[in-house]
Structure formats: structure tokens, C-alpha cells
Write a structure and sequence with these properties.
Layout (H helix, E strand, L loop, with lengths): L4 E14 L3 E12 L2 E12 L7 H13 L8 E3 L3 E4 L6 H8 L5 H20 L12 E5 L10 E4 L20 H5 L6 H16 L11 H9 L10 H10 L10 H10 L2 H7 L8
Antiparallel strand pairs: 1-2, 2-3, 3-5, 4-5, 6-7
Helix pairs in contact: 3-5, 3-8, 5-7
The protein binds adenosine-5'-triphosphate and magnesium ion (MG).
Amino acid sequence: KASHVQKKCSLQEESLGRGSFTRIFKGSKTDIREGERQNTDVLLKVLDGSYKNCWESFFEAASLMSQISHKHLLLVYGINIMVQEFVKYGALDLFLRKKQGSVPVSWKLDVAKQLACVLNFLEEKKIVHGNISAKNLLLAREGDSSIGTSPFIKLSDPGISVAVTVALDRIPWVAPEVLEAPETWGMECDKWSFGTTLWEIFNGGKAPLQGLDPQQKLMFYENHEQLPSPKWTELADLIGRCMEYDPALRPSSRGIIRQLNSLITSDYELLDPGLSAHA
Ligand code: ATP
Ligand code: MG
């Protein structure tokens, strides 16, 4: 006999602020399964009224996320208001900035490998995410190397597509070919964004190209410039390969995983013995 499941979602007073296109609330979801109540914290994303014209894209992002599942991909429970699992430690860029350089390199490498793992999953499903960035990586578990636990990240929804919004704000995360011709949008775009995100992770959550105005950001792409290379040459090489201006030259997700696995924290430590545990 099928069990009777009732679902209820309640909106709490607690507003968590705004995203680029959204208003964010914390809520809780109650499932009643055979008389037993189960509460789960959820995050509610509502499209901000001034972006009503982006509704279709918001809906697409929500429905994409609710159709696929992977351990490093955020769960989405509902789509009219996007109801998602609440991820305790929030966005990775904010987390890294808050920690101010006290995060071990091995921790960062762990996070990068988890992102590569979900990138590979998306590539196998032939799904383009389109908005991979440190702010869209949510931290579900902090991890503490002194007691042997690793961090655990979840990739959030892509939000509004660059096809329907001003893409300039998304430089240098958006692949340059997408700005020129949105129809060239493909698997390779996510590789570029992965490179930018890797740069953010290893630069303590610092915003790349901070302080540049939109016109200068555009020039950055027009001149085929690159973000400042990290000192760790093996890492710099991987970022550079992902951020190739020619999409055909970017590595496959398998290639990325292989290269990440060959990065050895001790190489980094040799560079800067004083900073052995931290980057
Ligand atoms: P984009 O539209 O490019 O994704 P954004 O990431 O700033 O922009 P939102 O995805 O709406 O906008 O998220 C806003 C903020 O809310 C995030 O930066 C993060 O701090 C927080 N947040 C988002 N989703 C969750 C979640 N599931 N759990 C906990 N916090 C979240
Ligand atoms: Mg987001």
C-alpha cells in the first residue's frame, strides 16, 4: 500500500536578502508521512518584481534543477517559487572572504575536485549549466582537516540565462564566445566558467576584475587578456587551459579531473614554505 505523503511549505518572516534577480527567504518544509512530521529547512527564491520579463528563464533554471540529481548538485523541491534545500554555510565566495586566507590549499583542492565531478556529470547528461561561479557554489559542510572531515559543496541553480539579460556583469565568468554570439552556447562555456571559479577559490573568494567598469571588462575579452596567474604553475596552467579563448582548446571534464588529481599540495608548499598550510 502506497504511503500517504502530504507536503506543506511555510514562509517564515526571515528574509535573507537579494540575489542578482531574486529575493531570498528562509522557510521550512513539512512532510507528513504516515502521521509523522518531518521538518526540513528550505530556501525560497522568488523572482524580483523588476525582472518579471525573465520569468521564463527563471522557470527554466528551476525546472532543469528539479529534473536532475547528483550529490554535488543542489536539490530543488518546487518551481513556481523556487524551493530549494537550505545550504547551511551559504555561498563559497563569501565564506572564503570571511576566512581571510586561513583555508588550507588541500581544502580548496577538495572543493575544486567536487565541482569538477558535477561538471563531468553535467557533461555526460549534455546539460549546460551556464552560470558556474563561486557565488553559486554553496557550502553544505565546512570540513575540518584536523579531525579528518572534508568540505562538501553543492552547485546552485543557474538563475537567469545570459541569453535574456545583460551579460557584461558576468565577465569574466561567462565564456567570451557567448557574448559575441549567444547561439554558440555549448558544453565548453562551462569549462571557461570553471576556470574562473577555480581562480576565485584559490584567490580567497576575491572578485576577479574587481573595480573595472563594464566597458573595461569588455576590453578585457576583446584583447584576449587573462586573469593574473597564480604562483602555483600547475594550477595556473589548468586555469589557463579552461580559459582558452578558442572553445575547442578547452579540456574535457575528464581532462580537468585528471589534471586536478595530479596537483599535489606539496608542490604548492615548496613555493612558499612560510604559507605551507594556507593560500
Ligand atoms: P545568480 O542569479 O547569478 O545566481 P546570486 O547567486 O547572487 O545570482 P541567488 O542565487 O538568488 O543570486 O542567491 C543569493 C544569495 O542567497 C547567494 O549569494 C547565497 O548567499 C544565498 N543562497 C542562495 N541559495 C541558497 C541556498 N540554497 N541555501 C543557502 N543560501 C543560499
Ligand atoms: Mg545563485
